[in-house]
Design the sequence.
């Protein structure tokens, strides 16, 4: 049987674009890709990239204050959302152009259309055309979900936050995950009055308890009005803005309410179950270690599989797919010990197990220090940072490393190499400190804070 293509990729985000480019560019496969929205996907258009630029933008107000403490005659004027937004939109346009150019340069045929799956080897395009391919790769990503409460259509999600016409004065953020905490810090830094509701006892569930505790404390110190054990009951618009009733009995008004209450895989209306692709309880595509679905010619990577929803993981899964299917080298994706960072202020960088998770498996030693960093302390700030290692008592392996500090994302990338290599506490100790830095504490902690 002959097909139009060797590979048809659905979704032009980080994972899909990488798989398409590498399959076409490195193996000579005939590849097509369909994207219904903007190239670059969530990461580039509605996530990591614009978010990080907003994190940068939100830091300058405090930086200007600190500069004065260092002798600079400087003060931050007002932040102009319009100026920033225009630059941000231009940057996202530029990046979309880069993605299109990369695909074209690898001879990937692009369809600016929605694609659904018709059978094991056929996709249906919204243009009316059908295309056949030996392999189909599902890389449609995910989308934010709202919790299902009365009036929720008044609220925005992370999809809309980058395109607001004006910067809201009073914002409510609902949720306690990555997105909620990052945007609480960003909007607070840009000058908005930020309230955050989280239904649980502490934000950033799943991260190390001590680290999440410090992040929450620093967020509060920075001005975020964080309410734990609190959720939103209903909302409606009235003359004063968006009226919100909460589970803690309060009623208040906001200019914007943002739900950051999780994301769902983009599998609805794709025709997947009809052709035999298995979907899980959250609508995610069920795949094996090689990203193959229940239909042998159909594979899936990235957030649509709801494994580890991070851009670099989707890219890895895309590369492993090409290696397996187009290079004849079956390659499972290694999802173990993935470093990641939450871009709160301060950032949280983490790799490996939290103290709580490690303790479940074995006896551990905890090496931990919290202190006022030099740069902020000199400027008269009370900010604290945390450096923490969770070590196996039996074989001395560092099971987890947790950093709460400015630029912790940069630090954890490097600490992640050592932890991935299986470094022991003694390997950390053998490494000479870089002085004066914050991260030098990671190699100078002599005695365990506790054994658990
Ligand atoms: P998360 O799953 O991290 O967090 C969702 C939050 O919403 C949790 O606090 C959850 O509470 C809460 N929640 C869920 N349902 C409800 C509800 N019905 N009512 C109230 N609260 C609710 O999702 P995010 O949307 O923040 O992020 C999605 C994923 O995107 C992340 O898991 C991560 O993989 C990725 N991401 C990574 C970033 C990075 O690397 N820096 C940045 C942004 C996103 P509970 O804890 O009680 O379940």
Sequence:
């Amino acid at each position: 049987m002959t097909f139009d293509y060797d590979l048809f990729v659905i979704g032009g985000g980080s994972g899909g674009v990488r798989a398409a480019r590498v399959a076409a560019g490195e193996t000579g496969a005939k590849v097509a890709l369909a994207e219904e929205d903007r190239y670059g996907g969530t990461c580039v258009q509605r996530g990591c990239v614009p978010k990080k630029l907003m994190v940068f933008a939100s830091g300058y107000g405090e930086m200007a204050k600190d500069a004065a403490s260092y002798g600079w005659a400087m003060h931050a004027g007002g932040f102009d959302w319009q100026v920033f937004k225009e630059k941000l939109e231009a940057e996202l346009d530029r990046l979309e152009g880069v993605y299109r150019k990369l695909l074209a340069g690898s001879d990937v045929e692009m369809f600016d259309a929605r694609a659904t799956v018709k059978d094991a080897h056929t996709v249906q395009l919204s243009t009316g055309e059908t295309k056949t391919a030996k392999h189909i790769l599902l890389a449609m990503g995910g989308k934010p979900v709202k919790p299902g409460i009365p009036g929720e259509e008044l609220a925005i999600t992370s999809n809309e936050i980058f395109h607001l016409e004006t910067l809201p004065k009073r914002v409510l953020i609902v949720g306690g995950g990555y997105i909620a905490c990052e945007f609480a810090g960003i909007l607070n830094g840009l000058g908005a009055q930020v309230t955050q509701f989280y239904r649980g006892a502490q934000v950033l569930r799943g991260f190390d308890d001590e680290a999440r505790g410090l992040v929450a404390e620093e967020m509060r110190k920075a001005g975020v009005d964080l309410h734990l054990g609190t959720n939103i009951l209903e909302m409606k618009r009235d003359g004063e803005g968006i009226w919100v009733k909460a589970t803690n009995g309060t009623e208040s008004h906001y200019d914007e309410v943002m739900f950051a209450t999780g994301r769902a895989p983009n599998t609805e209306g794709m025709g997947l179950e009809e052709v035999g692709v298995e979907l899980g309880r959250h609508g995610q595509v069920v795949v094996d270690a090689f990203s193959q679905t229940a239909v042998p010619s159909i594979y899936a990577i990235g957030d649509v599989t709801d494994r580890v929803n991070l851009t670099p993981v989707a890219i890895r899964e895309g590369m492993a797919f090409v290696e397996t299917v187009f290079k004849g080298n079956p390659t499972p994706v290694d999802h173990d010990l993935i470093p990641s960072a939450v871009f709160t202020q301060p950032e949280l960088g983490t790799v490996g197990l939290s103290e709580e998770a490690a303790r479940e498996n074995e006896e551990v030693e905890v090496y931990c220090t919290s202190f006022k960093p030099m740069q902020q302390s000199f400027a008269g700030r009370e900010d604290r940072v945390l450096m923490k290692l969770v070590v196996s008592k039996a074989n001395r392996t560092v099971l987890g490393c947790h950093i709460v500090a400015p630029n912790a994302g940069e630090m954890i990338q490097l600490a992640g190499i050592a932890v991935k290599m299986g470094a022991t506490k003694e390997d950390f100790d053998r490494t000479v400190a870089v002085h004066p830095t914050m991260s030098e504490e990671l190699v100078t902690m002599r005695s365990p804070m506790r054994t658990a």
Q: What stands out?
A: The radius of gyration is 24 Å.
